[in-house]
Amino acid sequence: MHSTKIIEIESIRREIVTQDYSAKWWAAFICIIFIEAVLLFLLISRQPTPLLFVAIIAIAFLLFLIPQLDEVISLTFDRGKLESKINAVGKKISATKARTDKLVLLSMSKSMYETLKKLAAGSLGSYEMSDALERELYHLKNMGYVEVSRIRDIPYEGNNLSDYVKVTDSGKQFIELRKSAEEESKG
């Protein structure tokens, strides 16, 4: 209820300020029209001079600009609010990007990530091609993190899977990004 009253008061204040500006601009508009009329009368009744033409053109130009001045002034007064809103949106975008990056980086299972790290280090050691390892390799290959000609051609058992599977630059970059995301999560 308290916040509703504050919002209503702010709305009324803005309306008063807007009306105040509008009244001032209408008064200025009427004064300029009066001066324009006097100058036109002088132009018609006397010998025209170049200065009189310049004055008439300048006032006509002012008459054209008055409706836009209200918008320019309101933007000038609201610039601080506008900048703070832009900064707030920028911070929200940065936070959302960071959360999205973490989500993507942490979406790979721990075992698959460990396999990728060992392959990159060239030290997976002895292995047995289980269904789980085969699925991980297919997934890593499909994601572009490893290069392998044909997974089915890899021997069922061996001393080092890194002899058959090479980690790509994307895979190495993923490892580095995941390390930094995990360190941020811990810290």
Features:
76% helix, 4% strand, Arc Repressor Mutant, subunit A, single chain, 4 strands, two-stranded antiparallel sheet, 187 residues, mainly alpha
Question: Care to describe what's here?
Answer:
By secondary structure, this protein is mostly helical. It has 2 domains: 76 residues; 79 residues, Orthogonal Bundle (Arc Repressor Mutant, subunit A), CATH 1.10.10. It contains 6 helices and 4 strands. The strands form 2 sheets. A two-stranded antiparallel ribbon has the order 1-3. A two-stranded antiparallel ribbon has the order 2-4. Helix 1 packs antiparallel against helix 2 and helix 2 packs across helix 3. The longest helix is centred in the first third of the chain and has 44 residues. The model has no long low-confidence stretch (mean pLDDT 77).
Gap between N and C termini, in Å?
41 Å
Compressed to H and E, one letter per element, the order equals HHHHEHEEEH
CATH topology-level name of the largest domain: Arc Repressor Mutant, subunit A
Widest sheet: strand ordering:
1-3
Structural class: mainly alpha
pLDDT averaged over residues: 77
**CATH second-level architecture of the largest domain:** Orthogonal Bundle
Taking all Cα atoms into account, the compactness measure Rg is: 36 Å
Q: Give the helix tally.
A: 6
Helix content class: over 70%
Largest sheet: 2 strands, antiparallel
Q: How many DSSP E strands? A: 4
CATH C-level category of the largest domain: Mainly Alpha
Strand content: under 5%
Label the overall shape.
rod-shaped
**Unreliable stretches covering 5 or more consecutive residues:** none
